[in-house]
Amino acid sequence: MYKIITEKPSGTISGHQKSENGKIEWNTEMPVSCSLSKGLQSLLTPVLANILEADQEKCWGFDQFFAETNDILHRTIVNVFSLQQATLHHSYIHQYNTAALFQELLSRRCSIPLHHQELHYEGRRLVLDPNRQAQVFPKTSRENPIMLLSREAVATVGLIFED
Distance between CA atoms of 152 and 116, rounded to whole angstroms? Predict the structure, then answer.
């Protein structure tokens, strides 16, 4: 345990050994089994890496830790369901962030280029002015997300039926 704590490379959030005195395997990401949304994981991983920093000069103090966690807590959660991925995404953004920044985030997370994105909310097309701030976005929830579609033609991959 001492070796894991003192020799942890910068930026890693965990390490484990499969055998006594064996090689330590380091991880910079949360495990696949983590039940936090990818959006929240992307915000919390740097916090964990910095509070678990082995080099005390690089390790965050309480002020930095509380500033970063408060920043996360004060973000707005925008729920977006990507039809292409059949996945619900939780995007954590500041209320003052613009629609342009939000759609850029969707582009990175869902691999749908900005010019191919089409948004729908409550059965109607949702057109966001690029300068519109997140504080005036429609209120979303898990049950009532913004739907993200791609205008790009995608080859349909069907399931093979076996008797």
Answer: 6
**Whether 47 contacts 64, CB under 8 Å:** no
Say if residues 36 and 44 touch (Cβ distance below 8 Å). Answer: yes
Whether the model clears a pTM of 0.90, i.e. scores above it, the answer is no
Pick the closest to residue 80 from 32, 141, 132, 4 (CA basis): 141
**145, 136 contact by CB (below 8 A):** no
Domains and CATH numbers, the chain: 1-73 (1.10.510.10), 75-150 (3.10.20.90)
Output the six-digit token pair for 21.
Answer: 């005195």
Phi, psi (5° rounding) for residue 105? -60, -45
Asked whether residue 155 carries a pLDDT value surpassing 80, the answer given is: no
Helix, strand, coil percent content, the chain, rounded in steps of 5? 30, 25, 45
pLDDT at 30 over 80: yes
CB 7 within 8 A of CB 59: no
